[in-house]
Amino acid sequence: MMLIKTHFIDVCLRKMQIGGQSSLAGPVINYNDLYFRIIISVTAAHIIVTIGEDYSFFQLLVKWDYYRSLLFSAVIAFILVNLVYWVIRHLDRKYDWKLYPLPRLGLQFVLALFLPAIAAFILAFLYFRAFGYDIRHTWYLRYDYPVIVALIFMLNIYYLAFYFFRKWQIAEEMATNASPAVVSVPKEKNVLIVSKGAQNIPLPVSSVAYIFHDGGYNFIRTFEQGEFFIAETLDVVQQQLSEKQFFRVNRQMLVNFTACQHFELLEYGKLELIVKPPFKEPVIISQKRAKAFKDWMER
Question: What's the pTM?
Answer without folding.
Answer: 0.50
